């Protein structure tokens, strides 16, 4: 088995450090000095691997988005293709996965959303994530509903995911994740009650 080089180890170490710093101090107070101290490396290492704090935030969000994608994919892999209802539930569940609900991840998401309004590279990441969510939901819903209806349902469910997630992220003591998911699932069930015959 090949040995992991220092590059990937350092990157992982720095991503964990920036998430810990954002969790403790918030993005505006997260400096390269604090990150380097947390990671126990020199500040120059951050510039070497990420070209500064902004690049490191982007890398951290890429990791969180990858965890999100892998969580959804793992859930979908256990559900038959034709069971669109269970697959929609799996997508909802994946967005409330433990990797997305830690204190550090919640604060990183909030910082990311705020920064994405001002930084094109972060905005692009957010757009990819938002489109992926709607696309995945539309694909599953289109198995039972016409395309335009499936698309509309997907957009509303995606908005419910983001809205409920945001409320929970802003709470000092977020409610149980099961309760959060149930709120979004209720939106899905309202659509089913309205459109299924």
From TrEMBL:
Domain HTH tetR-type span(s) in chain numbering: 8-68
Instruction: List the keywords (alphabetical).
Output: DNA-binding, Repressor, Transcription, Transcription regulation
**Which InterPro entries has this protein been placed in?**
BetI_C, DNA-bd_HTH_TetR-type_CS, Homeodomain-like_sf, HTH-type_TetR-like_transc_reg, HTH_TetR, Tet_transcr_reg_TetR-rel_C_sf, Tscrpt_rep_BetI
Which domain of life does this protein belong to?
Bacteria
Please name the GO terms that the record assigns under molecular function.
DNA-binding transcription factor activity; transcription cis-regulatory region binding
Q: Any keyword Translocase?
A: no
Coiled-coil segments, which residues? none
Q: Which GO terms describe its biological process?
A: glycine betaine biosynthetic process from choline; negative regulation of DNA-templated transcription
Positions of the DNA-binding region: 31-50
Pathway, per record: Amine and polyamine biosynthesis; betaine biosynthesis via choline pathway [regulation]
Q: Fetch the HAMAP family from UniProt.
A: HTH_type_BetI (MF_00768)
Main function: Repressor involved in the biosynthesis of the osmoprotectant glycine betaine. It represses transcription of the choline transporter BetT and the genes of BetAB involved in the synthesis of glycine betaine.
Matching PANTHER family, A to Z?
Answer: HTH-TYPE TRANSCRIPTIONAL REGULATOR BETI (PTHR30055:SF234), HTH-TYPE TRANSCRIPTIONAL REGULATOR RUTR (PTHR30055)
The protein in question is named HTH-type transcriptional regulator BetI
Organism from which the protein derives: Spartinivicinus marinus
């Amino acid at each position: 088995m090949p040995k992991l080089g220092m590059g990937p180890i350092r990157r992982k170490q720095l991503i964990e450090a920036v998430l810990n710093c954002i969790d403790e101090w918030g993005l505006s107070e997260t400096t390269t000095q604090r990150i380097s101290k947390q990671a126990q490396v020199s500040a120059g290492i951050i510039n070497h691997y990420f070209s500064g704090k902004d690049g490191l935030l982007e890398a951290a969000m890429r990791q969180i988005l990858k965890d999100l994608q892998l969580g959804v994919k793992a859930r979908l892999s256990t559900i038959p293709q034709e069971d669109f209802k269970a697959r929609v539930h799996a997508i909802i569940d994946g967005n409330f996965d433990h990797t997305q609900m830690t204190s550090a991840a919640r604060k990183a998401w909030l910082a990311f959303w705020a920064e994405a309004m001002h930084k094109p590279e972060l905005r692009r990441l957010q757009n990819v994530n938002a489109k992926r969510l709607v696309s995945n939901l539309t694909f599953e819903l289109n198995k039972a509903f016409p395309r335009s209806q499936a698309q509309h349902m997907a957009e509303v469910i995606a908005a419910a995911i983001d809205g409920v997630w945001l409320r929970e992220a802003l709470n000092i003591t977020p409610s149980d994740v099961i309760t959060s998911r149930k709120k979004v699932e209720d939106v899905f069930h309202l659509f089913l009650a309205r459109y299924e015959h």
